[in-house]
From TrEMBL:
Keywords: Decarboxylase, Lyase
Protein name (database record): Amidohydrolase-related domain-containing protein
Keyword flag ATP-binding: no
Segments forming domain Amidohydrolase-related: 68-331
Keyword rRNA processing: no
Gene Ontology CC: cytosol
Protein family (similarity comment): Belongs to the metallo-dependent hydrolases superfamily.
MF-aspect GO terms: carboxy-lyase activity; hydrolase activity
An example Gene Ontology biological process: secondary metabolic process
Length: 332
């Protein structure tokens, strides 16, 4: 296999812990659940070999979804986050030229989340944060927490002081919503469709509740070519502009303004060239970063798709492939 000439940074790339490997049976990758579990556990072996062949110079790793967000017990959620972050830092230390990491957090309360974020960034050297949409807080999975309410300002203040991006990643929705909306259509529950619904709602919640207004330096990353945020961008601002009273966004900025200054997207698991060109037109090339979504996608398909794009110049491709990620994550 020839090595790609365009060196890439990929930043929605998953691993798992040995004690969590059995949970990956709920999901599947290109080669089935058994190979998915194997690939999630492998970091320094076959993964590294295939990275180099595909032109991936650096992979920013994160614990696979749902991670601590699926743990209803606060103490267990924190223990899982700390275990994952310590493990990840150890793997990065083995090969810092090839790997970096995003910290997992328990999001049961803003103070605990902020404290672990600071530990992971300042003490462990991780380069950002990943949260898997909402936090489950009840054993039946129905009670959940979003992070767009005023009590979470403590957390967002800490994140902006740390000056690291937060990647908002999808997870499966609650049992009740799944039953009401997805009974009879279970194939839409995950990455084919509903994953993007949850993340898009969460990001828009941050916007309408004024989080970006209060923390103008906050940087959020979403995958899968922007989830469901880009195509309806004009209509979101158009219709929100009619709202008054309690329905009016708690911000003076349009969502278009926010997405161009506070939100970046990645190509993870979305290899559509027309969609990429549309995203560039809507939010600008400096807000788009290459990613794969390994091992839920192969290490070969995404890089080949990107290498074969003819509509972009070499300089534009290098900016998406690595330049924007280097700037946002402050990578050497």
């Amino acid at each position: 296999m020839s090595v790609s000439k365009i060196q890439k940074i990929a930043l929605e790339e998953a691993f798992t812990l040995p004690e969590l490997a059995s949970k990956t049976r709920l999901f599947t990758g290109p080669n089935g659940a058994q190979d998915l579990a194997r690939d999630l556990l492998d970091i320094q072996g076959t993964r590294l070999e295939r990275m180099k062949a595909s032109g991936i110079s650096l992979m920013i790793l994160s614990l696979t979804s749902p991670g601590p967000q699926d743990e209803a017990d606060p103490e267990k959620a924190l223990a899982l986050a700390r275990r994952a972050n310590d493990f990840l830092a150890g793997e990065v230390e083995k090969n810092p030229s090839s790997f970096a990491g995003l910290a997992s957090l328990s999001m049961h309360d803003p103070e605990t989340a902020a404290f672990e974020a600071r530990r992971a960034v300042k003490s462990l050297g991780l380069v950002g944060i990943i949260v898997n949409d909402f936090q489950t807080v009840s054993a039946d999975g129905e009670q959940i927490i979003f992070y767009d309410q005023p009590e979470w300002d403590f957390f967002w203040k800490e994140i902006t002081e740390l000056d690291v991006p937060v990647y908002i990643h999808p997870r499966l929705t609650t049992p009740d919503i799944s039953k009401k909306f997805l009974d009879g259509r279970p194939g839409l529950r995950g990455s084919a469709y509903f994953f993007s619904v949850g993340v898009s709602l969460h990001v828009l919640g941050l916007y309408v509740n004024g989080v970006f207004e209060r923390f103008p330096k906050l940087q959020i990353v979403v995958g899968h070519m922007g989830e469901h945020l880009l195509l309806p961008l004009w209509r979101i601002d158009h219709r929100l502009g009619y709202n008054t009273g309690a329905l009016k966004p708690k911000t003076q900025k349009t969502f278009r303004e926010v997405i161009k200054t506070n939100i970046s997207i990645t190509t993870s698991g979305h290899y559509g060239t027309p969609a990429l060109l549309y995203a560039i037109q809507e939010i600008g090339i400096d807000r788009i970063m290459f990613s794969i979504d390994y091992p839920y996608e192969t290490l070969e398909e995404g890089p080949k798709w990107f290498d074969d794009i003819t509509e972009l110049s070499q300089g534009q491709k290098e900016q998406i492939a690595s330049g924007n990620a280097k700037r946002l994550f402050k990578l050497n």
